[in-house]
Amino acid sequence: MGGQTAGFRKSQPAMANTTAYCSREDPTAFYMIHDYQIAGLIIFVVGFCGATANYTVVFLIDKVSSLQNAFGRLTLNQAIGEAVHLTVFTFYFAPTVFFDIKLLKSPEISRIFGHINLICYDICIYSHLVISINRLTAIYFPFKYNIVFSETNVRITVIVIWILAVLPTFYLYIIEDCRFIYSDDFWNFTFTNSPACAFITWYTDFLKYVSTVALIAFLDIITFAKVRFSTSKVSISDAAARKKRHDEINFVKQVCLQGVVFVLELNTYFIIVNYVEGKWNKFFLTTFAWEMVHSCDGYITLLFNKGFFRVIRSRIQTYGSTDTQHPVTIEKHSTQH
Fold it and tell me: Where are the transmembrane segments (predicted)?
C-alpha cells in the first residue's frame, strides 16, 4: 500500500509539517501541540489498540476450542501478519511522526519498515482469500472439506502464502529501482518517483489488490447467500449439530465483515483520496484507513469468537485467585466449550 493513488502513487514535494496551533512568538507556543504530533498520537493509539487485539488472537487462539481447525489456523496466520504490521505503525511510524525524527524518516531507514508493511499486507490479503475459499468449501462442499483443508494442505497453504508475500517483494522493491518510503506530505508511506515504480505500483500493487479483494467479495457474497438460504430452510434439532451450524454461520459472518472492511479501505485509499484536498483528509483516507483495516480485523475475530473472552476471563480469575487449584478448573471448563 502506498500514500498515493494506485498507479500514480509518486512522491510529491514535502509539505511543511511543523505548524503549531500557536505562533512561535507566543510564549505559550512551547506547550502547544503541533499537527504532526496529533497525527503521531492517532497513529499510536490506533496501532497499539489494533496490535493488542491481534496479539490476543495470536496468543490465545490455541485455547479456543471452536478454532482448533483449518479456519483457526488460517485466522492465526492472518492475525500474525496484522499484528506485525500494526507493531511497525505503533513503535516505528508513530514515534517517528510525533517526535519528527529525521533519521527515521530518511529513505534508507523508512524503506525497511515500508517493505515490512507491504509484506504484512500481502500476508493478510492472501490469508483472507484462502479463508474465504475455506468458508465457501465448508458451506457448499461440506463432504470434501476435510480433504481440501486437511492439516497437511493447510500447512502447505500457509507456507505458500508467506512465499508469495515475501519473495516477489525482494525483486520488486530491492532489486528494481522502487522504494516504499516515508513522506511528510500527509504522514504516509509512498513509492519513489521512478519508471520502475510507475509500472510496479499499477500492476503489482493496485491491480493485484483490487482483483484479489473483488474475488474475496464475490466468494463472501455467494457463501453468505447460501448460508442465509439454508438457515431459513433447515431446522436442526440435535444440540451438537446446531452448535456446529451456529459456529459455521459465525465464521461466515466474520469473514464477510472483514471483507467489507478491506473493500472500504481500498476504496478510500485508491479512489476517494483523489477527490479530496487537505493533508488531514488524505491522512485519514490513507494512513489511518490502512491502520484501521488491520485493527478492525483483530476486533472482528474477537467479537465473533466468544471463546476468546472465556479464556481471558479465566486468565483474569487465575491471576486474581489465591487458590492454585481453582484456576485449573476454570481453564478446563473454558476450553471444553
Answer: 38-61, 83-104, 116-134, 154-174, 209-229, 250-272, 284-305
Its pTM stands at 0.83
CA gap 13, 190 in Å, rounded = 12
Q: Which residues pair with 183 in a beta bridge?
A: 188
Cell of 7: 498507479
Hey, what amino acid is at 180?
F
Residues linked to residue 20 through DSSP beta bridges, in sequence order = 34
Strands of the chain, DSSP E? 180-183, 188-191
Other residues' Cβ atoms within 10 Å of the Cβ of residue 125:
22
Residue 50's Cα: distance from chain center in Å? 9
- Cα dist. 38→44, 45, 314 in Å? 10, 11, 37
CA distances from 111 to 127, 132, 179 (A): 24, 32, 6
pLDDT digit string, tens, across residues 290-307: 999 999 999 999 999 989
